[in-house]
Amino acid sequence: xxxxxxxxxxxxxxxxxxxxxxxxxxxxxxxxxxxxxxxxxxxxxxxxxxxxxxxxxxxxxxxxxxxxxxxxxxxxxxxxxxxxxxxxxxxxxxxxxxxxxxxxxxxxxxxxxxxx
Length: 116
Fold this sequence. Notes:
116 residues; 2 helices; 3 domains; 10% strand; mainly alpha
């Protein structure tokens, strides 16, 4: 008989991995790589044991989907801003100001390098 699965997956409670301190990466004297304790995620279960891969995959998919939604929202907000009167002109003016500042900084650096 096949295993029955819950209809609604519940995200497990997690804590930062004690081995890598939540970074997901171990740093040795001569090398570094993914932490073996948490499989490079930086998270372990509340009991300190690594999370099952099925749970990790589901958590990563949820995080990916949340980030994609945030990115779509940011893109839509940016598009709305570009259609606001005066915003394109203000952006062009700011870019020109930044370019002029960069040119002034470059000239000052060249002058210092020449000893002047």
